[in-house]
Amino acid sequence: MTITANTQFPHLIPQNLEFLTLMRDSSSATLGAELVYTQDSSGRYLTFYWQHSEYLGCDPDDIVDVLNENDNFAPVDKVVYLEHLHRILSSSVPERVKCWFKCPNIELLELELTITPILPRFGQATTTVLVIGRLLPSKINPQEANQVLKPPTALELALRLQRHQKLLNRITRNIRRTLDLDIIWQQTVDSLGKKLNLERCIICPYQPSSNKVRVIAEYCRPAQISILGSEIDISSESSFAEALATLEPVVMTVSSNQQSSRFKVLVVATGYKDQVNSLVALSFVNPCHSLTQAELELAKEVADQLGTAIAHATLYKEIEESRQKAEEVSRLKTEFLANVSHEIRTPLNGMIGFLKLILEGITDDAEEQHEFISEAHQLSLHLLNILNDILDIAKIEAGKMELDCSPVNLKELFDAVEGFTRRQAEMKNLSFQMEMPAISDEIIVQGNYQRLLQVMLNLVGNAIKFTHEGGITISADLMLKKHPGIVKVRVADTGIGVSLDKQDKLFQLFSQIDGSRTRHYGGTGLGLTISQKLIEAMGGEVHFYSLGEELGSTVTFTVPLYQQPLMVIGH
Length: 571
What we know:
Number of helices: 14
Radius of gyration: 40 Å
Shape: elongated
Largest sheet: 7 strands, antiparallel
Strand content: 15-25%
Helix content: 40-55%
Distance between the termini: 95 Å
Structural class: alpha+beta
């Protein structure tokens, strides 16, 4: 594109509706030109007339909308064209310009244009230009464009580099103002897309462990279909793979399947300390736009700045999440200790009270004295269970929970559980059912008897505690599809249940669904957590199910069947 100042045309042209209407209805005979159009500062057409508009393949009444939407008649180097447009609007001085335009169905066209600012009323900014032009005899085929188009002049290169440097400074300032990753990503694609007049600009965070990336931020023209949130397979995108392999900007000209057109793509990897953390892809409107080595260096610099910002923001996010998690754990531990302290004091105060009555001789007879001693004994056992829970959790946290597994008869285990818990259920008028698989053979599982008993007493005890009417069912099912087979034990109740949004807290250490519920029903709230850890140590899994509050609960756990060792006889 070449430029010469032009002073032959008056530039005090009134910007009003009548003038723009005249431009729309004018003909080559009226203005003595074959091409006449008006544009705003963004390059959008306001009016358009061309003697050869039949090449555009659209209805003359809709020609302005079609041109603005599809870029059917636009400068090959739109970035430089807009730079001239802005300079003319800012200086109010017309210029004569020679530039190449792309036009569908025919060759690239070289036009000579006279761009004249349309001055507004006094005190208003100039935002519109009148362009009168003619077709020059030189023309080329799109396939020959790269060889025939003239390279940018030194002035054009200097202007382009200056503009890119300003863009780099702006992006750097913006991303240094925040540590929010979402803002950094979106501000970057918006700045690049708008300032470079891109078709599309995307950012995809990169993890070395995955061969796919997801589009996390996107800028695209309104006519384009958004790909935000979609996944890209790196192995199927050669430009992405090459950018990761070389850590250098990669430029490719690719075809669009949707529009049967070609566009240029620049892909650059961002990183910090040689660790890639994202991929940025820029899609240029003009496939003939040539990227100089200086511009590619600027692209690398933008990538370096962005990569550093992403690394710092990611580190800040991780630190913030760790801080919040630590604060939450501290809060839960404080609440847990408060509840446990209450649970320890309650039986301890009862024991002290009963023993004091006995020591002071307040009891009337031996029977009452025996009753007080029995109550103190029950309270001491309850206190022992609480302390055992706390010790178990301490061992689990320290990684010192060791279990010796051996064959366990499932019926004997169930009988023991029934002996400890049936009376508790009947005292609350709850039904109590124990269901074993209907087979004649004994069922032997591989586990630790005392710990399996502890788990079942925990689960059944909770079911009785949180059930006020209805009943509890304990059952077992054989699952022999896998080898070795497993037994699934199920404890179901018709109790108070748990809301769906709170069930994820059930197995979190020191996390209680509701502190008031724990205080009301008693206990440490550690039963499920301890049970889960014990069953996992024996090779099984624990799961909790509830449809919501007042809809009952079901807890299941699995334990492997015992496998009889094979006897090998030596020869």
